[in-house]
Design goal:
Largest sheet of chain C: none
Strand content of chain E: under 5%
Radius of gyration of chain E: 34 Å
Number of helices of chain E: 27
Structural class of chain C: mainly alpha
Low-confidence stretches of chain C: none
Number of helices of chain C: 7
Oligomer: heteropentamer
Largest sheet of chain E: 2 strands, antiparallel
Low-confidence stretches of chain E: 604-624
Order of helices and strands of chain C: HHHHHHH
Order of helices and strands of chain E: HHHEEHHHHHHHHHHHHHHHHHHHHHHHH
Helix content of chain E: over 70%
Chains: A mainly alpha (100), B mainly alpha (512), C mainly alpha (167), D mainly alpha (488), E mainly alpha (653)
Distance between the termini of chain E: 96 Å
Number of strands of chain E: 2
Largest interface: A-C, 72 and 90 residues
Helix content of chain C: over 70%
Distance between the termini of chain C: 62 Å
Structural class of chain E: mainly alpha
Shape of chain C: globular
Strand content of chain C: under 5%
Mean pLDDT of chain E: 82
Amino acid sequence: MIRLPLILFFSALLFSAGVYGVLARRNAIMVLMAIELMLNAVNVNLIGFSAQLKDVNGQIFALFVIAVAAAEVGIGLAIVILLFRNRESINIDEVNLLKW
Amino acid sequence: MNWHNSAITVTTLLPILGALVIICVPKDKDRLIRGLGIFFTAAALVLAIAIAVGFDYGTGDFQFVLNVKWIETIGANYHVGIDGISMPLYVLTFLLSFLCAIYTWRYVPDPGRTKAFLALMLLLETGMAGTFIAFDLILFFVFWEMVLVPMYFLIAIWGSANREYASIKFFLYTLFGSVFMLLGFLALYFSGPTDALGHHTFDMLRLTEFGAGGGFSRTFQLVVFGGIALGLAVKVPMWPFHTWLPDAHTEAPTIGSVLLAGIMLKMGTYGFIRIAIPMLPEGAHAYAPWIGGLAVIGIVYASLACLAQKDLKRLIAFSSVGHMGFVMLGIATLTPIGIQAAIFGMVAHGVITGMLFFCVGSIYDRYHTREIAVIGGGMAQEMPKLAGVFAFVAIASLGLPGLAGFWGEVMSLLSSFNPAPGLNVGLFRAYMVAGGVGTVLTAGYFLWMLQRVNMGTLPERWSGKGFRDIIAVEWLAWLPLLALTLVLGLFPRLVFGITDNAVGALTSLIGR
Amino acid sequence: MSGQEYAFIVLAVVGSVAAIAVVTARNVVHAALYLVVTLLSVGGVYLLVGAEFLGWVQILIYVGAIVILFLFGLMLTKAPIGRDVLDNHQRWLAALVGALVFAGLVFLVQDAFPLQDAVATESFQGTTGLIGDAIFRRYVLPFEAISFLLLAALIGAIVLARKDEST
Amino acid sequence: MDIDYRALLPELILSGTVILVLVVDVFLSARRKWLAMPLAMVGVVAALVALLSLVGGPTRTAFGGSFVVDRFTLLFQGFFLVAAIVVLAISLRYFREGGFYQGEYYFLLLTAFLGCVMMPGSRDLLLLFVSLELVSAPGFLMAAFRKGDIRSNEAGLKFFLIGVLSTAVMLYGMSLIYGVTGATRLDAIAVGLSRVVGTSRETLALAAILFVVVGFAFKVSAFPFQFWAPDTYEGSPVPVAAFLAVASSAAGFAGLLQLMFIAFIGQHEFWVPIFVLLSLATMTLGNLVALQQTQIVRLLAYSGIAQSGYILMTFALVTDDAATNHAAFSAAVAYILIYGVMNVGAFAAVVAVSRRASSLRISDFAGLVKVAPLIAVGMATFMISLAGVPPTGGFWGKLLIFRAAIDRGGPLGVWLAVIMLANSVVSISYYFAVPRQMFLKPAEDETPLAAPVLVSAVVAVATVAIVMIFILPGAFARLADLSSLVGG
Amino acid sequence: MAGSVNVFVRYAWLIPLLPIASACLTLFFGKRTPGRGAVYGIAALATTMLMSLGVLWHFVQGNGVYAPAGLEWFTIGPLRLELGMYVDGLTAAMLVVVTTISLMVHIYSLGYMHGDARFTWFYFVLSMFTAAMLTVVIANNLIELLIGWEVMGVCSYLLIGHWYEEKQNSNAAIKAFITTRIGDIPFMFGIIMLIAATGFTTTNIVGVGEAIKEPAISALFVSMAAILLFGGTIGKSAQFPLHVWLPDAMAGPTPVSALIHAATMVAAGVYLVGRLFEVFLHAEPWVLTTVSIIAAITTLGAALLAIVQDDIKRVLAYSTLSQLSYMVAGLSMGEEGMTAGFFHLFTHAFFKALLFLGAGAVIHAVHSNDMSDMGGLRKQMPITFWTMIIGSLALAGIFPLAGFWSKDELLVVAQETGHTWLFVVFLVTAAITAFYTMRMVMLTFFGDYRGHGHPHEAPSTMTGPLIFLALCTVGVGFLGAPQLGSVFGDWVFFEQPHAGTFVAWIALLSTVVAVGGLAVGYRLYQRRAERDPMESALGPMWNVLQHRYYIDAFYMRAIIYPTRDTLSAAVYWTNQHVLDAAVNGAAALARGLSHVIMWFDRTIIDGFVNGLGETAGSTGGLLKKVQSGNVQWYAAGLFVGVIALAIAFIRIA
């Protein structure tokens, strides 16, 4: 069978990749994708643990996370589109009217 | 609830009621508003006098006491009462407020807004009066702070040119002080006595017993006394924490100055007598020389600063610093005579300096300037009555025997010749001498002021201005003060008779 | 090393590579496709460890719905091509942080569940029934909540994304 | 299985209202859209009534202890429902005149409040997470609700991104905790963690705790997760900002309290230092930056950050001694409530003024006392209260925390107390900038400002409340005292 | 308390009260009463004068001290203060002097102040002034005495500054008040010490007198007290070095000068020493020596100054100074000296008042103080002339006028008690006195008129008092004449009476000296010279005297100006630029701190945001970098924060 640490390493990598994406990408949608990666990392963790613990709660948790992730993507995209409509660009680093 | 346990509460809170009523009156009913102001202050004064009449002067303990649970979670009670130490100041508070209300009948400083003005004044009145009758640290602190806000607005809205700076400075400075004071209170609270259930208490009487009984460790006393003293010293104000005072006074409207000098400053010195010294006797002994030192520095320093003043009001503001110096000197001796001298000094200063500020206010109302040089003398020719009153009060203020100003000064000097046992006699005698020098300088600047304002001939620019001499409203507002100045001077018993027992009780507590 | 583990490693490697590709790709559409790969591999992992239900949900919802959503968005916002346009100036900082995070997590995990003495456990089968059961008993409240969340997201998204003349 | 519907009544009524609002909105003509608000109001009031019916009853638990209705829950739920009423009240005119999607807005608002109401009862990681999302997600949307305004979009975007990120971090932490303890219920987690102590997994557990804290630290805008707050507050519609400042952050604290005092209490040696750092950094940064603000909403945002710092301080006071923790806990609760009152009042005042000047600078309050005396007086009161100066409730709030700090004893307690005091003094200078404008500066246009009646009502009530709290703090303190989750 | 106590004595306390009452009446109703309120004062003073005589009668009958227990005034801690009176011979004598002179002045002022703008006010202050002096005289305790003492000071201030339109007058007033006040401070300390000696139980003079006899009280303590008390005398009686105010006090209306110099202010200082003589006697001898030295300096110095004055009032003023020092010196010679000293005070009061009022009459006539505007007035104003002559001769000490007897007493005492050097000083001074008196008379009444207008005799309201006082001057001397059993000595004495003795050679010597002085004076000023003959005679000394030994100048330059202008300015500067600055600084600190923090943040954030990339052109607002507005930087902050916290704390745990 699969040893837990391996799964955790995998999730860690996904998470880190997500972090990088969130910080490095200027295109809002790419950032959203990166966030999805992070959420997936969480799920991988949950599933891994749930298998390890022989406990279904982890999976249910993961299920909720997926649902939330879906919702977030919807919201995110809506905001991005709104933004795009107002300023013909979705480059996050240009979005800095509000500061100080 | 009978008269005896409700009297103080009713009297103290009446002004707030007045404020509420006034707020409800539409602002165009100006006369009505002013009338209400006079009415409520008068009513409060009557009640206060009633209390004074019902007071048993034979004993030194507290009367009209009311003590009920207030904030159980922190063990704070609504505990009020009055004794010989509070009484003079308490009554004085209502008297001055009443006179201010009368004065307001005629003079409301720009920008008008009588309604707000009087409402704030009444609020102020309650705050000040409350400070003198609170026997729970939290309650005391609440009243203490309650004074801050209205005074801030009085200065900030109705003040003169530089009011904003002055008000902010006043507010932040005093607040800064009270923060330390609060710290001190909490320290007292937490290391103070606990009841059977192990609850701490803010009750001043219990803390006093505890502290006077040596309940607090020496180091604790040193630290905490320092904190509280700092808070109080700012309010007094003691040199070198006085710098807010001249600005505040100079900018404040007449009423503001009168109340500020007349009552508010006393809150600080009262705090020393009521809280700092009895609760922390050792700390008091340790700090007394320093306090005395600062006091005399204040005396000399202030009188010198006065010599340099060009602004009449500022001059008088500085003179306050000097007078409070005498009060603090008396307190620093920790002797019955000294402390009574201090109380007398407070009352006298309240009456006299209050009156001085009234005068300056009226002078300003005539000349529309406070620059001594611009006024340029000759007032005695143009307005003999006003000049006469001004001279009278000024002379009273420089401590002429037979007038109110004298007793506080001479008695505090007297007491500093033999301070409480354990204090350095030589040092305090040196203070006495310095104080004496201060009195000469005081005489100097006051007479010089009179020479430059009253005497000489009226400059061209004022001729034909047709200045009104003192008008009826002013007489009404002033006569009581003028009378008091004389009566207190001739019959000091009016104050000493009240304070003697209470102070005796107090000092016997801390005396070692 | 069981067969499952080999399979997992393959999936994990593919997924990881794809994931990195997602956040480094020069072309947004490619990035989206890489994302698909990652998600699929993750789903595969679920299946491997016996969470069939989750696995299928993953594959259906994500690959079926979310990615489509992304592509939608990409087309609507006609995203440009090329790293310099896609990345911002703090790429290096980002790399640093990412690396740190990865190192930290790996360290923590290794500290808590040392690989060497980790024992392979047999898979946890037949969970689907349990899940369905639990959701409608213990988790009915969060379930209700999550449905409201989705509803809110839906409505709100429509409101925001809708093109209207009023404003 | 049997579910205690009685315990869930408020939530049920609220969710019913949500649906109702959504449906009814469809059938309302454009001019009638605003009717959604009264409708929502009725629902909220009904929920409040239902809630009150629970008061004094026994502690009810549902779903195997993952949802608990005790005094703590009731207190906070009550607070949130009242907050809901207030926010609804100050929203009406703003949204009616701003040309917004009113129905949807109220729908989202209620949904968010549903999340808030669920939060204090949630004693399960999953529930906490869902409630948190339920509070946040509508928030993201509402922040961007001024669709035409780029600033609003930006506000939404920032809020969204930071929110989702911190959620992700939090979730990661939760997953780890689940993995380490095998539990998601808070009490069970506490047990599990106690078992972990000393083993090789402790470190991971601690890291997990840290990650989880991040999610809530974001909600309460604690340093260094506070960046979003000022921008978002500024960009969003003012009522939404009010919601974020009052309800959403309070919800965050509610969750944090439960987590820290139930699940992670055993690890306090680990996280107390963190909170010390967080609170000090937060309050200091908030106050210092606030000193330089010219825009009222940003000012309030930073003030909010500072205030969060004060509240976070209570977490830094936790020790092994139950009594101390109890004091800290109730201090926190009391402060959150008092802060809520004065803050919502302040925002109401801002709403009132915002109808006059679009971009709200502090200078727009100049001479307000002439234009709108009530609002001015109220605003002054709130500012004084926020500064913690008597005669206002804020004074007690600070005093309670202060007392808790001293009570805790030890240099730490004293130092925290002193630093807090120093901060308060600093804060005065910017809080009083507002009254200064209102009372001392002349207004540029003297035309009386007719504040919406509801808003005025809110201001008036809040003002009175603040003063009343000052006069009778006993009741308040008692409330906080009773609702403590820590046996005193 | 031998003998019966007559009604006047028993009600002696009314004596100060009546003038107070009249003062109040004058103040409140004066303007409305015919004669503008002068009547009140005159009536009151007349009554009190009669009462005083009644009181004196009590002692003429040879009765003893009357010191009833006073009423309790107030109690403060252990200290009990009373209001009460202490009447002995000294008191009685002083009462008579004060009331008489004051009455004369009151009457005289009717004419002199006629038509003055503040006529009523003048009478009010005059009465208050008298009342204050009477309080001092009759007080039975130190505080009461101090009150009268200070009130007197204020009244003198008001009177001297009566014509305050002139700057120099108000200056003189202030000078008088402040200078005496400077003396009052040690005086007050002295009182405090005495009260302390009683253990803060009483302030009564009697009580104090007993207290200092206690062995517990060291002689040094008493000496300190005594010397401090004498400070009061120095101030009020204008002894060196605080004599400077007296000449300037001439700025006031002449009747005031008369009152001040003859009966009240200056007398008070001497009276004080007499009243507390016990203290001085119990002090170590050096105290009295100091006193006599100061007296000697003053008496000679003042006499010399009198020579060179042109202002007639100044001549008299300086003569007052030197005569006062006679008295003080007399007191400094111990018990016998006391009687003599007070006898001189007694006589001096009359003839000095006479001289001043006379001078007033002259000034009233020629509208100038300057003797160079006078001359030859003996024709125009005979009454004034003859009365003045009497006064002058008395001052010079010519038999049988008052001055002769009292001076003679002093000389005798000096000789008997072996104060030879004082004896010499007395003689020399006597000569000089005679000389400048003659000079004054010559310049005023002889030669021919140098002024403007046509001077004429003063109205009867003014001449009346002159005549009365002249008679007194002739008469009172005999009260102390040993041949007549020196009655005065039976009233005013310390412990037991000292019958004055008559030493023929001394009397002769003094007379010779006096006459010599007069003769020289007559010779020199017989005919009018352009330049004052003394100017050449004295040479450089002349200038020194003209500048009053430069003492005033010294005070002005060394003390007054520096304090009033430089020092005060410095202090105020400190206030504004040091203390206040500190406060504002503190206030600004918070703001400043925020800037610092911001700068810190900026550099930090810059450091790690652009550290690897380009360096930020970070010049913008302080917050730019923290709250840069770029959400991804916020995100970075978030993660960095987490990592930092993790690294910071996890290892610790």
